[in-house]
Amino acid sequence: MTMGTRVYLARLAGLGVFDPNGDRVGRVRDAVVRLRTTNRPPQVVGLVAEMALRRRIFLPIGRVTSMDSEAVVLSTGTLNLRRFEKRPNELLVVEELLDRRVTVMPETGDGHGSPGNVVDIGMDLTRNNEWLVTRVAVREHTGRLARRGHVYQAEYERIRNLFGPTDTQGTSNLLALLEPMRPADMANALQDLPDARRNEVAAALSDRKLADVLEELPEHDQVEILSRLDRERAADVLERMDPDDAADLLAELPNAEQTMLLDLMEPEEAAPVRQLMSYKPGTAGAVMTSEPVIMTPDATVAEALARIREPDLSPVVAAQVFVARAPSATPTGKYLGMVHFQRLLREPPASILGGIVDNDLEPLRPAISLGEITKRMATYDLVAMPVVDNTHRLLGAVTVDDVLDHSLPRDWRDRDTANAEPEDGVHL
């Protein structure tokens, strides 16, 4: 797939964008097509690229010098960083055309067409240096699972209903593009979709994936998506979220809704969420995670290293092991101290944790304020601190990402807030 040949636009999604010096400046997220008032095929006018801080900008197609399966290369390093806004006569390929239900007419033009769903859009470069939509890759509609139908290509002129109402879209091909993304990137992509489309795609995700994505979305989007799920599914998703994130989300709902969802959750999953919701907002108890890595003092360094290698643990949670007497689930037995992973790497594998714990730092109490937590973590260069009750039982841990999440403005994840306008022209 190079310049001068046919390019399939959905295949560009996710590719890196590079300037002439080979420096990466962003990643392709979509392609923009402009509709014509005549019967001419739509013109592809540019790409939408995502830059740092989740900013999406428009890249005119004329500034693209090459497109292949590895990267998109630009002819200049000077870009307009104004946030992309779609014009009335424009459509986005991935967001609005992918998965659309269309009718493919016979090559002879006679008879009835065959139903199918759009898999990709192909464009060709004309003699006038215009990129026009010329081909559509379609998966035939068989009435069975959407991904089992045969995929074939058809000329644009044979396609009907490509620009019909949005309720003719499915989700399977868009999901295939989104699923390899990290949860934060997928959440960012979902924010660009129309509300109805976003809710459909979110509902089609697995419980685990949807839980991860919800944790990365602004609160108003979390509430909107959760409210569109049936109550049993919503409870299942909440069970798969980190308890502190689930508690924050439930706190945005009416009391009656909170109670119903907590009652639908498994008791062992709901218990830590209920406990977190009982603390005053802005305190250690309200922002902590109730599931840090906890081990007993007779565990070995080798066992601790194996535990923090588990792929489901976030880096900040896996950075240290908290040592407490049994039981190991919060609230634990007596808290003894913590061991940072760097200390674990320097100790013999057979050493026991009880002999190497660091217990010099005073643990946090649940009622301590977020401001005081921030000061202590900054003073001692910590990424996490334990939270204990009056009997010195470990209740959880406040991590640096918890502090950041609750210190930033409530709408910091919102795309509109994050994308403050810079100067129009910036040399990268």
TrEMBL record:
The protein's superkingdom reads Bacteria
GO CC field: membrane
Among InterPro entries, the record links this protein to: CBS_dom, CBS_dom_sf, Mg_transptr_MgtE_intracell_dom, MgtE_N_sf, MgtE_transporter, PRC_barrel-like_sf, SH3_actinomycetes
Q: Which UniProt keywords apply?
A: CBS domain
Q: Where in this chain does the record put each CBS domain?
A: 357-415
PROSITE patterns the UniProt entry points to = CBS (PS51371)
Q: Which residues form the signal peptide?
A: none
A Pfam family of the record is SH3_actinomycetes
- Which GO MF terms are attached to this record? magnesium ion transmembrane transporter activity
Q: What is this protein called?
A: Magnesium transporter
